[in-house]
């Protein structure tokens, strides 16, 4: 168990999206991801896991299962096991996501 | 897969905390919970699941594994399998949480 303040997990990095771990248990992980303009995660899939992206700040373009949508704060995109998904920050501002996956890879 | 705008899931109910389902898959569920002042979820535990509360709006008092903490927006409290956890809105304002559990009960 634990407590964490995600409101200060806002750092980006120049080479790729920045992942700030919140917690990881045998059942799932939760991260805060910060994407500078132009950064993203290419479409991919996880064989046995559910993944979600929840927008905390900014706007991004999300893909899941062959559909695309632009989402702002409060928007969520999820992919079930084996469904391709990805995200791109094609805005001019930082994009901050709460990202969870269950079960986490390798668990 | 799917997309959802959680920013409009803000309804409370007078008798108990309001749960707005976002998605449920075999691996996890994600909800938005709205707690009016005075409402809460008493301490309890789930045998094989990880659960988290993430504060979207307002302030609440969270318990996990014998510790208590007051959290505001961006605060997260998580409990691993079998760890007792609960939340109470002892403020004067609505408390809005993103709540996830993996695996979901009964899955």
Tell me about this structure.
Two copies of one chain form a homodimer. Chain A has a single domain (about 15-100), classed as Jelly Rolls (Sandwich). In chain A, about 0% of the residues lie in helices and about 55% in strands. Chain A has strands at about 1-5, 20-25, 30-35, 40-45, 50-55, 60-65, 65-70, 75-80, 85-90, 95-100. The two termini of chain A are about 20 Å apart. The model of chain A has no long low-confidence stretch (mean pLDDT about 95). The interface of A and B includes residues 25, 49, 56, 65 and 73 of A.
Give the fraction of residues assigned to helices of chain A.
under 10%
What would CATH call the class of chain A?
A: Mainly Beta
Strand content of chain A: over 45%
Low-pLDDT segments of chain A: none
General shape of chain A = globular
Topology:
The structure is a homodimer of 107-residue chains.
Chain A: E1 2-5, E2 18-24, E3 29-35, E4 40-44, E5 50-57, E6 60-64, E7 67-71, E8 75-79, E9 85-88, E10 95-102
Antiparallel strand pairs in A: 2-3, 3-10, 4-9, 5-8, 5-10, 6-7, 6-9
Summarize the structure.
With 107 residues, chain A is mainly β.
Describe this protein with a few key phrases.
4-stranded antiparallel sheet, 0% helix, globular, Jelly Rolls, 10 strands, homodimer
